[in-house]
Amino acid sequence: MILSCSLPASDGVDYDLKTGKYVLYLYPKDMTSGCTLESQTFRDHQQSFKDLGFQILGLSKDDLKSHAKFIEKESLNFPLLSDESTEFIQKLEAWKEKSMYGKKYFGIERSTFVIIDGKIKQAWRKVKVPGHVEEVLEVCKKLA
Asked: Which range marks the domain in which residue 92 is found?
């Protein structure tokens, strides 16, 4: 399957993912503790990914206004994509039923994808934040 999307991004660019090398990480919500830590870690390693030719993209269902605040607050150095309809998130099979305090709801399963020319080369599901970005970087080094 060749991935393609046309989602609004915080930098005003439309990313189609059909050409190029991307690290696309899906996270549940702007400005929450785990999502902040994950985004900060990608921010801190952004140059290493760039040196390998990979563009980091974050994706959640938050709107661009929320993304702008998150980017400014955390000094993020890569774009965030917004999928308010969750159509693309569902295509990636990352829209899952969750449970918190016994209440069921749907939300994003924290996931990361290494995509080269529209093809998923590596996928991580149910991501645990500590050490994850370093693991993604190692895979990108092998694929570069």
From this structure: 21-143
At 4, the pLDDT band (50, 70, 90 cuts) reads confident
**pLDDT surpasses 90 at 42:** yes
pLDDT of residue 1: 65
Q: Assess whether 35 carries a catalytic annotation.
A: yes
Asked if the structure places residue 132 within a domain, the reply is yes
What CATH number is attached to the domain comprising 54? 3.40.30.10
pLDDT at site 63: 96
Contact 60, 35 (CB under 8 A): yes
**pLDDT attached to residue 58:** 98
Of 20, 87, 84, 94, nearest to 57 (Cα)? 20
Q: How many domains does the chain have?
A: 1
Residue 49 lies in a domain: yes
Alpha-helical (H) ranges within the chain are 33-51, 64-74, 87-91, 132-143
Residue 12 counted as domain residue: no
With both helix axes pointing from N to C terminus, report the angle between 64-74 and 33-51 in degrees, rounded to the nearest 10. Answer: 70
Inter-residue contact 35 to 43 (CB < 8 Å)? no
**Catalytic residue chosen out of the listed positions 9, 35, 59, 133:** 35
